[in-house]
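Quick review question:
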């Protein structure tokens, strides 16, 4: 169930392997454990992807893939989750991070506009980088921990529900077999005749 949900949430899962930006990592992308869908790998990938998504840096996909390779977690999910930070969400994310960082560092407020361009990184970012980076790191850590814990819990609930369904099916089969005596013994007829007519089974042989 959990694996089906992951593939439903991430329709571009298989396309990550062919992404040009990740070609720089070479044969490392072919490591089998980077594509596993298990509780540890997926929860770790959420932690990596969400952490990188909140960092105000370029080449987030490449950084997420590199970290995923180092810590051996699911690479496609790590890479796809950096798109939490996209042209639509970057302005509110960066503004929130800057506000938090400015409050922590007690710095005066500055007006700025987020643009993913070299001019912005060389201009506005240089004047607000300290509070922006401080707030971004806090948001990144919070998002990373939240994603990791939530996925671990959801995976655990998924396993518990699957076990409950399995037990319910077994219980229904048991009740059905008790209510239908003809369904209790499913041995082939020849085996039943041999075993039921064995010496001592139905009294002493005549």
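Suggested answer, residue by residue:
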């Amino acid at each position: 169930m959990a694996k089906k949900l992951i593939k439903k949430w991430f329709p571009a899962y298989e396309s990550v392997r062919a992404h040009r930006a990740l070609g720089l990592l070479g044969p490392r992308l072919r490591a089998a454990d980077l594509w596993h869908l298990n509780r540890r790998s997926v929860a770790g990938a959420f932690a990596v992807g969400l952490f990188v998504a909140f960092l105000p840096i370029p080449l987030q996909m490449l950084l997420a893939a590199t970290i995923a390779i180092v810590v051996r977690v699911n690479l496609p999910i790590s890479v796809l989750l950096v798109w939490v930070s996209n042209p639509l969400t970057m302005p509110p994310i960066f503004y929130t991070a800057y506000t938090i960082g400015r409050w922590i560092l007690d710095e005066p407020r500055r007006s700025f506009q987020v643009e993913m361009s070299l001019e912005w990184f060389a201009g506005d970012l240089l004047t607000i980088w300290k509070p922006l980076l401080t707030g971004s790191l806090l948001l990144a850590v919070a998002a990373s921990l939240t994603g990791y814990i939530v996925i671990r819990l959801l995976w655990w609930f998924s396993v518990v529900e699957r076990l409950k369904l399995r037990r319910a099916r077994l219980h229904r089969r048991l009740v059905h077999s008790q209510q239908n005596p003809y369904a209790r013994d499913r041995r082939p007829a020849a085996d039943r005749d041999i075993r039921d007519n064995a010496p001592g089974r139905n009294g002493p042989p005549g």
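Why it works: The radius of gyration is 29 Å. The helical segments are 2-9, 39-53, 60-71, 75-80, 90-105, 118-122, 124-179, 189-196.
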